[in-house]
Amino acid sequence: MRTALLILLLQLSAFLSAQNTVALNYDKEVLNEVLLELSDRYNFELSINAELSDACRVSVNQNFSNISEAVAHLAKLCGLKLDKVGTVFVITQNPQASEPFAGIGENQIQQEFLYHGVIREPKNGEVLPYSVIQCGNKRVLSDENGRFSFVTGNRKEQLMVHSLGYKLSDTLIASGGFLSLELKPEILQLQEVEVLNGVSPTEGNVASEPGSIQFSDIGNTFVAGQSNNLIFNNLRLYPGVMASGESIGDYVIRGSFSGNNQVLFDGITLFNATGINNDIGTVNPYLVKHLELNKSNFSSLTGDRVENLITITGREGSFNRTEAKLNVTNHLAGGYLNIPLVKDHVNFQLAGRKTYFDFWDLSSSPGEEKDLLLPSYDFEEWNAKLSVRLNSGDRISFNSLQTTDKYEAKLLGPKRRNQVFRNLEALSTQKGYSFNYTSGAWQQGISSVSIAFSSFLPEVLNSYTVDFKNNTEQLSSSSWKNGVEETVAKFSHQFVQQNAHAVSLGVSYTHSSTSLNNILNERVQSFDNSLARVSFFGEDRIQIGKKTIFTPGLRVDVVDQLASNYLQPRLAIQHYLNPSWKMYASWGRYNQFLFKTTTIDGRGNLGSIWSVADDQRRLPLKSNQSTAGFLWTHSAWELNVEGYYKYLSNLQRVYLAQSLGDKFQLGNGEAYGLDVMLRKKLKQHNFLWSYSVGRIQEKFNTDDYVLAAQHQGHEVKFSYSVNFQKFKANVVHVYGSGFQGSGLSADINSTTPYHRTDVAAEYNLMDETCHLDLGFSILNLFNKENIRLNQSVNFPDGDRVNTLGIPFTPTLYLNLSF
Q1: Where in this chain does the record put each TonB-dependent receptor plug domain (predicted)?
Q2: What is the dihedral of CA 99, 105, 106, 108, to 10 degrees?
Q3: In angstroms, rounded to a whole number, what is the distance separating the alpha carbons of residues 234 and 293?
Q4: Domain residue spans of the chain
Q5: Of 3.20.20.70, 3.40.50.450, 2.60.120.1130, 2.40.170.20, which CATH number belongs to 199-817?
Q6: Which CATH number fits domain 21-95: 3.55.50.30, 1.20.900.10, 1.10.10.10, 3.40.50.720?
Q7: 413-427, 512-526, 593-607 — most confident range
Q8: For residue 339, is pLDDT > 90?
Q9: What is the mean pLDDT of residues 347-358?
């Protein structure tokens, strides 16, 4: 009986002991979430700094005799100290703990500490996109809003942080809370004096990713050109971006076909990024913070075209200081206003530009011995942006823009004297709106939700008349409107970077529509088309050791209307041989569902219309791209050599006159070449030399390739800038071997090389409250007669007339900021 009673008591004691045992089984869970769960389960009060508990992740699989031992163990794992005040558990920083407790035994695992935050400027708090953070063997890249998130096994880490145009920061950082890292400008003067007329980030971060160049506004040095075509003046200096030809509707990047490049400004697609005339760009220079050019092989996370991508990040603005800026030239005025609505939390930016009558027109006109079309234009643009910073770290922004272009071309030369007239009038309106919300759920990574709407409506009126014995007779006329709209809703998530992986995933919905109303000699043609699709995308940036980064990615477009899914795998690899040498290569497959179709009228004049893919003959565009190159940096020298190959299929063109051949044709394109860039920095002075060689060809209904209209064999460019405290000067020269049909004669096979030299100088006046810059810029200093690409006109009598490029054009300007 006694034995049975003893066994019963022992079993009861073991049962009660088991009931009081606290079992912890967590794998890489945030300490704060673990403690809150235990507090609810065991009904105890807790006091802890959220920043400390959010910064540590715990992994444990162990039993404890009571809740006090369990909480003490969790605190010790994270290098914290536990005190008990009455019935309240109080967890605080342990001043004696410099590293987390790793523990002993197989059930205790090295803990992880979260580092998350943003990189910004110290003066106005502007974020620094795409900054590089070096943490031991780990290389972390911040996102487009300067944010980063990664974990390590140490409570304190030595971080090296770098952003283009800013000083390298090497500092010891402790994990805990939201980090705000500040970088000082590399050249303080360029932060204090913002050069608005022709600023150029000629210190672009070349090959930061395969096939890419990144630009920061603080890295700008002075360059000849007009401020109001900021993007083109910057990009044209680099290899692969064609400066010859002065294309008025699209960039030509590595021989890209019209419509195959995408320009994104805060998520808004700019269908006409350079305005109708290259003298003025659509994007207001006051609002540009960061620019990234992908000449080929862009990531699967963004981009919607088969050739190139330009991503422009707008300024967030100052949240604590009102700013106003004014730019005036002899033909255009621009202004900028920044107003903090709620200090440190809400601000509003407004910018605009407007052309007016050139009250001091010093540009030259061509002689009347040649037939040329002389363009003129009018331009107006408005851009507004509202930015919000929440205490949680969340960010919200609203952006809107509207531009209006009016373009006219008049005929000069013998044809006008012979009473033959060609009139061209064009009007285009571009609108865009975007909303972006960035989540502050930092423990699980960085999430973004965005919605963007873009629209573009060009209208063109074209007519030919002849004046015979004071009687005007119309030979032919045409007019058309070709509207395009696109709405994109997108969700993306960047997981916390841990171990060797940085994973990003996302999904988007895109609705595209186009319309055409075409009248050709009283014959009317019109249509409306639309297409919707869902895209899934992701990539994993894998770091292999300290010297190699391998990035596989995949994009899948699901299009119900086409009853098909489009898989687009992409790969990239970068290898650092040593601090001076970097090698890289990439490959990718791309699809495009909204594109331009080339049109050819009865006289062989080229045009284009926006179209969407369908399940009949307008097939989605496809491309395969490969890039390989190396980057060498030593002291103030930088050399980049990059080769590329592109194959495109389903290129489309339509003949407007049946007599010219099949009305609709599908074709293929091919481009390959080499880009070389050499740069030397001498204190504040810079020299940049670039060379491009390549071949661009196409074929439609033939077995053999022929040269494409935008083919140019060679292009050489150099820029030299001097930058003193008060005075800046720059000279730029561009040589291009020319395009087929770019000659000044009527021969369609003639070729004339392209030459253009630009110069500029500026003097800066400063005081504590107001900055004043006075300067001049001269385009085409030697008045070379150059021809615009794809702007030739074939007349009814069989003659061909080209459109004149920018002539000798001086500009006087002043910039005022306060």
Answers
A1: 234-304
A2: -40
A3: 11
A4: 21-95, 114-186, 199-817
A5: 2.40.170.20
A6: 3.55.50.30
A7: 593-607
A8: yes
A9: 86
